[in-house]
Amino acid sequence: MKPLDFLIIGAQKCATTTLFEHLKAHPDIAMPVEKEVPFFTGEDCSADAWETFSRQHFVGRDHRLWGKATPQYMCDPGAAARIHRLMPGTKLIAILRDPIERTWSHYQMGRRRATEHRDFDQAVGELLSPERLTLGRTLPVPRHQEGFEPESDFYVSWSEYGRVLSRYAGLFGEDQLLVLYTEQLEVDPEGTLDRILAFIGLEPGFRPSTLGQVIHKGGSSNKVPHGLRVWLRERQWLYRLWKLIPAEQQGALRFRYEQWNVRKQRAGINPIPPAARQALTAHFANDLDRLLKLPVDAPPWAGRYALDSHCATAA
To answer: Taking each helix axis from N to C terminus, what angle separates 274-292 and 302-314, rounded to the nearest 10 degrees?
Structure first.
């Protein structure tokens, strides 16, 4: 069995697509055509199941490094143990974004997909209750096999980086986990890519044509209304034509469509409601303490949370 050499485990909405596109272009790296083809969120994570999966998604048994990018692995409560059980030597890459910004982006995606109808203040108020936090941390990850499923239980829990990465750090060695930040990729794309290449055992210096680009940026709405997409999916003749396309190509086409269909947010607009931001700041300040106990660089937004949470407490 040939295992994965490296795995981008997330987090969702934090530039995992950008990393995937950069690394996929490397001549010494083999990755699936589609980014999000989960394996370790399934019930069968045996060596035989991996052989079947790898024959479908990795062409040839050559000298290249095998890698995947699956942000669901920072969401699924059992993924870390499944990965370690089958591939204990795999190197893991996590890229993180300000947790409030990630939470807001995740909520906006739900609005675009018409699976979320609450305002942000209401959603945050509900999700910060102890019962809903527990639910978001333990529910299985939606697989979206028959269209978009709601992810409304996960906006907050999937931004708890300290909690999630503590699980990985308890299983994998320090030299197997690289934690990066979205701001590093934006400010220094060359240096950040070189750091990743050195981590997985390749020479620095590779510069893909995508370097410096934001490959899949979220936005405030869709160009094509979600209801029209649902209507088209219900046309049986179109569905039959779609099924004629190989499964791995379907995923790539879905991704390109999602990229095109997002109407971007105008620059300079910060629409996060102040009450929701204050509540989330206090919540994520506690999770930041857990993150900083791990062998990671302090995130660029660490001081902001410490300052804001102190002010909120003093008020």
So the answer is: 120
- φ, ψ of residue 310 to 5 degrees: the values are -65, -45
Tokens matching residue 209: 């044509």
The CA distance from 100 to 289, in Å, is 16
Interatomic CA distance for residues 242 and 236, integer angstroms: 10
Q: What are the tokens at 92?
A: 């893991």
User: Which helix (H) or strand (E) element contains residue 156?
Assistant: none
76 contacts 41 by C-beta, under 8 angstroms: yes
The pLDDT of residue 269 is 54
CA atoms within 13 Å, Cβ hemisphere of 291:
28
Indicate left, alpha or beta for 10 from its phi (over 0: left) and psi (-120 to 50: alpha).
left
Sheet strands (E) in 88-166: 91-96
Low-confidence ranges of the chain (pLDDT < 70): 60-61, 144-147, 215-237, 239, 242-243, 247-270, 307-315
* Alpha-carbon span 186 to 300, nearest angstrom: 12
At residue 145, the pLDDT reads 63
Give which of 94, 52, 96 is closest to 73, Cα–Cα.
94
| Rounded Cα distance, 104 and 98, in Å | 10
CA distances (Å), 273 to each of 126, 152, 212, 268, 295, in order? Answer: 15, 18, 30, 15, 33
- For the chain, the helix, strand and coil percentages under 3-state DSSP, each to the nearest 5: 50, 10, 40
Which of the 8 DSSP states describes residue 202? Answer: -
User: Is-contact 54 20, C-beta < 8 A?
Assistant: no
